[in-house]
Design goal:
Residues 19-61 form the TadE-like domain. The chain crosses the membrane at residues 25-48. Keywords: Membrane, Transmembrane, Transmembrane helix. With 140 residues, the chain is an alpha+beta fold. It has one domain (2-138). Helix 1 packs antiparallel against helix 2 (70-83). The protein contains 3 helices and 3 strands, in the order H-H-E-E-H-E.
Amino acid sequence: MLIHRRRASQAGCQQSHRGVAATELALVLPLFVMLVLASIEACTMVFLNHSLSIASYEAVRVAINFDSTNSDVIDRFDTLIDARDVAGAALAISPANVATTPRGTQISLTATAPCDQNALLPPWFFGGKTLSVTTTMVKE
């Protein structure tokens, strides 16, 4: 009789633990999913920032050549941005015309892209923001 009572009490204990585990899952799973999604979105924005940096750097390398034109610079930028599937990217060149810029002058390129158009998830974390990268080199 004593053995039967212990088994009955152990069975109730297991059911109690199942309820605790279900409650813990219900509380922790949404937080864990949110953390994973935020990490994925942050990695996407790091990739976007790196893509803008690479495209800006390569375009300014073209801009500092003595025989380059603005269309050469824009073509190089667009080629790299298209290869990395960046949407809505824009390039600002300073000074406005690299062909007439004298040697020794700094040329700055500012690449921008909206986070909304390049996000994998709905705009929860980076909605309405724009990433911007500026690269400066001296004209050769």
